[in-house]
Design goal:
Strand content: 15-25%
Helix content: 40-55%
Number of domains: 1
Distance between the termini: 20 Å
């Protein structure tokens, strides 16, 4: 599990070229042809996932239309991975709208920005999510409100799930999604190595991305849980609790599997 600056250099050039190429193509697809919007972004994210050396194992089946995907959040890599699979808009914290370059990509991707610090704006922001669902789009929401080290699922901010109390909620579904970074170069990821994947706290984005580019092949498990209708629950707090428990149980199960795999690998090493 060694970081290689040479590998970072080898990967940074195709990364820059890919972003430049897709930025140009985006202009023609979105502003001229005005079609295949989500298909374009899926290919964009698929390319980024490949350049970053990420192997994604999907399980479960995502719904296709009018779905609010509710996921735990570990890293900016989550967006690349989910974006490579889902035709969906993302909900992001408003601070990202001031980040150079990234804010442009987010705007082009029709990201819904949410100001978590201004409670009075939450209602209007939830209206944007509801409008997107009404238009037939899917939306990805990270209700933890921030990223974490991935060791556990942080408490959900139920205010971000206010859309489930919509008057037209009978037409919508939500679907919990579990993200788990499991292996690096075929070896189970120990707790001390999780900061290589997790981006949280005061970590610098560019330096973290540079180091991640210098790692080997990473394995990520994405599980789409059973979708549920909005009107199957009485309130956003009920939905929040249900999704939190569902995702937390899956993360705990994955960690148990990691410990088992570590013991198997250790026994194999002793037999050599």
């Amino acid at each position: 599990m060694l970081y290689s600056p040479i590998l970072s250099i080898l990967r940074i050039f195709p990364l820059i070229l890919w972003v430049m190429l897709l930025s140009i193509l985006h202009f023609f697809y979105h502003f001229i042809f005005r079609k295949n919007f989500f298909l374009f972004y899926m290919y964009f994210f698929k390319g980024l996932v490949k350049i970053f050396g990420i192997k994604v194992l999907f399980s479960g089946s995502p719904l296709r239309k009018k779905v609010l995907f509710i996921s735990n959040h570990i890293s900016y890599l989550d967006i690349l991975i989910l974006g490579s699979k889902l035709n969906a808009l993302f909900v992001a914290k408003s601070e990202i709208d001031s980040w150079p370059v990234i804010n442009i990509l987010c705007r082009l991707g029709r990201t819904i920005f949410v100001n978590r610090k201004k409670f009075l704006k939450v209602k209007s922001q939830m209206g944007q999510i509801e409008k997107s669902l009404e238009d037939g789009n899917n939306v990805v929401l990270f209700p933890e409100g921030t990223s974490s080290d991935g060791l556990k699922v942080l408490n959900f901010k139920s205010s971000l799930l206010g859309v489930v109390e919509s008057k037209i909620k009978k037409d919508f579904y939500f679907q919990p999604v579990s993200i788990f970074y499991s292996k690096l170069d075929g070896m189970p990821v120990e707790i001390k190595f999780r900061p290589f994947f997790a981006w949280f706290g005061n970590m610098d984005l560019l330096s973290h991305a540079w180091k991640f580019l210098g790692l080997g092949i990473s394995e990520v498990k994405i599980h789409f849980h059973k979708p549920r209708k909005f009107d199957a629950f009485r309130s956003r707090k009920d939905v929040s609790e249900y999704c939190h428990n569902t995702i937390s149980n899956q993360i705990s199960f994955n960690f148990q599997n990691v410990e088992v795999e570590k013991k198997i690998k250790l026994n194999e090493f002793k037999l050599l």
